[in-house]
Amino acid sequence: MADLRVETADGIATVTLDRPDALNALTIPLKEALIDAFTTIAADREVRAIVLTGAGRAFCAGQDLQERLEPGAVPLDVELRDRYNPLVRAIRAAPQPVIAAINGVAAGAGASIAFACDLRIASDTARFVLAFGQIGLIPDSGATWTLQRLVGAAKAAEIALLNEPVSADEAARIGLVTRVVPAAELAREARALAVRVAALSPGAVAGTKEALEAGATSTFEEALELEARLQGEAGAHPDHGEGIAAFIEKRPPRFGRPAG
Ligand code: LHQ
Q: From CA 257, how far away is CA 48, in angstroms rounded?
């Protein structure tokens, strides 16, 4: 698909939105290609980390507004159920950590997609704009759930209701992004982050994602029980023994590979 690039090297898949002239705004074919890409990568055991980024000066300007003006445009509830929701679900359900490398403006559903990722690293040129309010819509693609969990209810209400752009520095200050780096260094720093998580045990990473997701809405008791179940599985996997052996032998662990 011309508007989406997927490159895989050394266990890291890089997914690049590639409609720079429209600030990587999301059309139906682009959303469908993204869902396909995340579904395919999720099932690829060779991939240990995913980086999502945008070509040109934007990360993603959200829904392509030109497409909404075309005759027969799909009703918004249908568009959400058929494409946006499956997309953010696919990001969150991937067993690999998904790192948003936010290279520029992330607006509307573009911001929601960044919020759905596991980690966010931003260039100093990045900014978040909820944008929904300015076109008479409510935040969607999971933003009403993710944003308040990332920054707290008061800050989320401020960002969503006032439509104030959140600069990269402000995003770092409120914990919305892990780090801000100079634009020229973003791709390298995002890759370095991906290399770090790719070196961890894939099973432990997938279990951590699952437990954090469930813990966001579970009771404390439910979280304890899920931890016990997932830890039982992690402890029974060869990666646990490899981790202990590597510690004792004072060497880096080799996770997810056959012993020897
Ligand atoms: C665009 C877009 C764009 C097309 C810039 N589409 N061309 C929606 C409905 C359907 C289902 C349910 O969910 C949703 C979810 C949503 O995402 S709703 C929110 C949709 N997005 C927006 O409302 C954002 C609209 N864009 C903007 O507010 C600004 O463009 C931002 C703040 C992103 C960037 O501002 P600037 O840096 O000043 O750039 P610009 O406005 O000059 O845009 C550059 C070009 O990109 C321009 O085209 P042109 O031909 O004049 O160079 C824009 O028309 C185009 N573009 N966003 N979403």
A: 12
Give the angle 89-94-98 at the CA atoms, nearest 5°: 95
240 alpha carbon to ligand 1 midpoint, in Å?
Answer: 47
Which tokens belong to 6? Answer: 């997927």
How far does the centroid of ligand 1 lie from the alpha carbon of residue 83, in Å?
19
> pLDDT at position 245, please?
97
Q: Is 63 in the pocket of ligand 1 (CB under 6 A)?
A: yes
**Residues 6 or more apart whose Cβ sits within 8 Å of residue 16:** 4, 5, 6, 7, 53, 54, 55
pTM value? Answer: 0.97
Ligand 1 atom 57 nearest Cα: 61
148-190 pLDDT tens trace:
999 999 999 999 999 889 999 999 999 999 999 999 999 999 9
Q: What is the 3-state secondary structure (H, E, C) of 79-106?
A: HHHHHHHHHHHHHHHCCCCEEEEECCEE
Atom of ligand 1 nearest to the CA of 109: 17
Residue found by looking up tokens 């969990």 in the block: 149
Q: Is 87 in the pocket of ligand 1 (CB under 6 A)?
A: no
Going from the Cα of 169 to the center of ligand 1, the distance in angstroms, rounded, reads 22
Residue 257 is predicted with a pLDDT of 54
